[in-house]
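Please, structure for the following, as tokens.
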Amino acid sequence: MKRRLLSLIAIAAVFAATGCAPPVGYIGGASTAGADSLWAVPYRVMYDINDVFVRSEDLLVFGSRNGIVFSIPVEEVDIGIIDNPDSSDEVDEWFPKNGDRYLFRVKGRKVIVVRYGGMSTQYSIEVRDPYEIGDIIGPGEGGGIIVEWGDP
């Protein structure tokens, strides 16, 4: 009887100890403060002129701390774009956090920069001009197509 009781206590202690620690590779449940790694995973890397980058639909962001991987809400990261990475590595424009859309108006390679908690990562995308309509700069800025509606 004593042996059975001791075995039962030992098994209960093992279950209690293993239940308190997350398994290796556990995703979620970790605090996002103090991340030691940052990854940006794009859903798309190819856009056409006039396509829109949508923060909540085109990007996933992950971090890790002490080997535990966790997702970071894209609303909490800073996202910027380098329009001409061949001539500069400075961010041309930061995407507003309250508006998650960015219209691509100029074709070519772009770099998306993601910043969170003092860390940054980046990835490259390509903006194509499949219909050869030219860069959509805007009225009065030259290039592209300008549509003016008139009275019939």
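The chain has two helices and ten strands. The longest strand covers residues 119-128.
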